[in-house]
Amino acid sequence: MFGVKRGIERVSKITMPLLLILAVIVTIYSVTRAGALEGVKYFLIPDFSKLTIMTVVAATGQLFYSLSIAMGILYTYGSYLDKDIDIEEATIQIELFDTGVAILAGLMIIPAVYAFSSGGASSTLNAGPSLMFITIPKVFASMGLGSIVGFVFFLLVFVAAITSSISLAETNASTFEDQFGWNRKKSTIVVTIIIILLGSTSALGFSTLDFITIIGMNFLDFFDFITNSILMPIAALATLILILRVVGLDKIA
Q: What is the pTM of this model?
């Protein structure tokens, strides 16, 4: 378990700085394109006339997903922490870094939608999590050396996604070990099979299975909506009840 944690840390120390540098470059290029200013306004200026309960649900889901709340990751890796780690200081650092990266991602993608969608920005913005794979390739296609930069960018995104997947896999594998008494190998194999099945379904939703939609969404967007906007808030509420009513604040402290 500790080996998994240290391995992810080593990979992240290499890939994350490179990914951030490329993201800054793409953001600068994106916001300086013709028509991109409308995207900046759309992203940064609130429009309360469009505020609905589903907007709040979507934002809450994104918050939970982005900070890995109610997914078991915090519990799993929290149990591996050294005793001298300042949890409050680490939490503040994570919150600031996460918010900064979220703003950077928004400035990278939303202005690009307005600059490269040829007047169809409104419909393109409804694409959900798949938006990055629709818009960012257009940005790279218009850049000098865009093919090389694009390849490196999405390679780093792939590595970042793999490390995130390992975090979730570690959580599920450790749960199978604790709840069912399975050994490490069996737990890892079962979780890997589940990941491959669900991941392949989401990937094929952009190609051979793109004709299948669930409540108007492809597989990736549907899984994202169900997990982020519904299951994680429910899990968070259940966690609060568990801590406050069952465990008790004194024991947690």
A: 0.68
